[in-house]
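Reviewer 2 asked us to include a model.

Predict the structure of this chain.
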Amino acid sequence: MKKLILMLLVIATLVFMTVSVAFAADSSPTPDINTYLTWEFLGTMAGAVAATTLIVQFLKLPLDKVWKIPTRFLVYVIALLILLAVEIFSGTFSAERLILIILNAVIVATSAMGTYEATFKKLEGKTE
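Predicted model (structure tokens):
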């Protein structure tokens, strides 16, 4: 029970930090309270890492029940898809940027795995 409460507190803290970073990055004087994620925020390192970490945590357990996909591969694919979507929907995608997207996905994936190690892994290793 203590593990669950602590994990929920960590997740809530991450969500609040993500929202505050999104509002701080917004240059408008009154941020829209109904906007959670934007393409501009997902295009930043913090946004891509936060989204990748949360999506992998959401998908990993159900995918492990069906297929045994290596977590590093899953993290990289999700990071790559997020960065590709940002480039495509923001209208800046080009063949020249594809190499940068592939390399940036490595940075985002390793940062997301580090975020997992710093938060969730410590919670799983503790005993009551």
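The radius of gyration is 16 Å. The chain has a mean pLDDT of 81. We have added this to the supplementary material.
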